[in-house]
Amino acid sequence: MKNTKLGLLFLSFLFGITGLYAQIPEHIWAESQEIEKQIKQTHFPANLYVITDFGVTAGDASALCHEAINRAITTCSEQGGGTVLIPKGEFHTGPITLKSNVNLHLEEGAVLKFSTDPELYLPVVLTRWEGLDCYNLRPLIYAYGETNIAITGKGAIDGQGSEEHWWYMKGSPHYGWKEGMISQLDKGRPRLLEEAEAGVPIEERIMTLEDGLRPQLINFYNCNTILIEDVTLLNSPFWVIHPLFCESLIVRGVTINSYGPNSDGCDPESSKNVLIDNCVFDTGDDCIAIKSGRNADGRKWDVPSENIIVRNCYMKDGHGGVVVGSEISGGYRNLFVENCRMDSPNLDRVIRIKTNTCRGGVIENIYARNITVSECREAVLKINLLYELNEICDRSFPPVVRNVYLDNITSEKSKYGVLIRGLEESVNIENIHITNSSFSNVQSGGNAISGGIEGLNLKSLKINGSPVNE
Questions:
Q1: pLDDT at 177 over 80
Q2: Other Cβ atoms closer than 10 A to 282
Q3: Cα angle vertex 438, ends 433, 440, to 5°?
Q4: Is 285 among the residues known to form the active site?
Q5: How far apart, in whole angstroms, are the C-alpha atoms of residue 181 and residue 210?
Q6: How many CA atoms lie within 13 A of 97 on its CB side?
Q7: 288 contacts 337 by C-beta, under 8 angstroms
Q8: For residues 97 and 75, is the Cβ–Cβ distance under 8 A?
Q9: Residue 334 Ramachandran class (φ > 0 left, ψ -120 to 50 alpha, else beta)
Q10: CB 359 within 8 A of CB 325
Q11: β-strand 110-114 against 89-93: which pairing, if any?
Q12: Using one digit for the tens of pLDDT, what is the confidence trace for 330-370?
């Protein structure tokens, strides 16, 4: 993205903010439109395969139907593609594997309820867990190396995560864990972190049930031309939507309600050309969190996430509305966020960048405009280069964050306006702009900024009604 001088524009009437300071120039949003044109669209033949024609019966919790659903998907794919229909009704299932040229369509009133028996999600498959390459429990819906795939319709997909099932594996009493239960903290997470740091080959990083690393609800690995549209996604064991090494993904009109630990709503990882549009996020962790691998694993692949557009979304609960990191060692570039609404006392931050000196990588070109925030708990913008200070890792990879622009952001309540934690020993945060914005009821009275920063520009920013000049 070329550096240009910011032009003087005036659109602040949108939110009743006065001032004639430079907004994000319109050519930036023209670039986002060009990126959107690069996103390939799914297309499916008219062939229709109804799962009830493959021996599936609705409403019987004792009769899991994943084998029949997978037969329908395989048949559809092998015969040139089309739609596999989940009709109205409640269907109990185990893991589903999506294949090329298949649209898994859930009719309105259809519910897929996934079994909570961990044994069903064996054998393990290749994936990433918190940015680390491994073989882990099969995600509830998984695809590897497929093209032209979709999950659509007005139905619901319920992972049935709860304090009794899956969530307790976090190892926290808050989520139902008790002494003697499986916990990721006892074995799996520290083992995987240690193996990744030591460079153990991926094929030897095989997680077991006792490791307690919960599976994702949806994990598409090395896929392209993907659509997830209109469905409601509930109660994920772990991350909800996790595209990994994917290209051309549209997530549109999706509602996500998942309040468990690490219930990130959508985590594009090392993925390119992504549109997230008109979605609702109500989550137990970040609503949208962009990733590119953790530490040595991310640097080894060196595949950034890039060209992600987020617009017209509504964020409720979550650790952050739109987040970059923390597993971001491959870097990130070109994020466009606009016309979103965020509102919850349980939403911690609006725009969040989190990383540390284990990660490395360059995070650049973050653009956000026209965001209304009724309330967030901590800060409207948080940039934190001191995330997870207790992580055991090689800390010789200082990250870089540069070119962050926020314009026309209104917030009615937060603890801080801008919260930045840079590195004390060097300048690794550069070119941060907030323009034509107003943050009210800021409980600390202002911003909290520390560490090495160059080019911090707060123009026509009001905090608690008073202009800020920094």
A1: yes
A2: 20
A3: 130
A4: yes
A5: 10
A6: 15
A7: no
A8: no
A9: left
A10: yes
A11: parallel
A12: 999 999 999 999 999 999 999 999 999 999 999 999 999 99
Task: Let me know if 319 is a catalytic residue.
Answer: yes
Out of 133, 158, 211, 285, which one is annotated catalytic?
A: 285
Chain centroid, CA 449 distance in Å: 26
Smallest Cα–Cα separation from 460: which of 23, 28, 29, 25? 23
3-state secondary structure of 31: helix
What is the DSSP pairing of strand 466-468 with strand 452-463? antiparallel
**Residues 137/116, Cβ–Cβ less than 8 Å:** no
The mean predicted confidence, pLDDT, of the chain is 94
Task: Give the span between the Cα atoms of 455 and 433, in whole angstroms.
Answer: 8
90 in helix, strand or coil?
A: strand
- The C-alpha atoms of residue 65 and residue 68 are separated, in whole angstroms, by 5
Q: Is 431 exposed, middle or buried (0-12, 13-18, 19+ CB in 10 A)?
A: middle
Could you tell me the pTM of the whole model? 0.94
Residue with tokens 């694993």: 297
Whose CA is closest to 175, among 235, 90, 108, 251?
A: 235
In a 13 Å sphere around the CA of 140, the CA atoms on its Cβ side amount to: 28
- DSSP-derived letter for residue 169 is G
Start-to-end C-alpha separation, the chain = 26
Beta strands 400-411 and 362-375, pairing class = parallel
Residue 284 CB burial class (10 angstroms; 0-12, 13-18, ≥19):
buried
The residues pairing with 451 across neighbouring beta strands, listed in sequence order, are none
Q: Where are the alpha helices (DSSP H) in 39-91?
A: 66-78
Does the pLDDT of residue 13 top 70, yes or no?
no
Report the alpha-carbon distance of residue 105 to residue 151 in Å, rounded. Answer: 6
**Tokens linked to 239:** 């991350």
Cβ atoms of residues 468 and 462 within 8 Å = yes
Catalytic residue, from 319, 348, 407, 433: name it.
Answer: 319
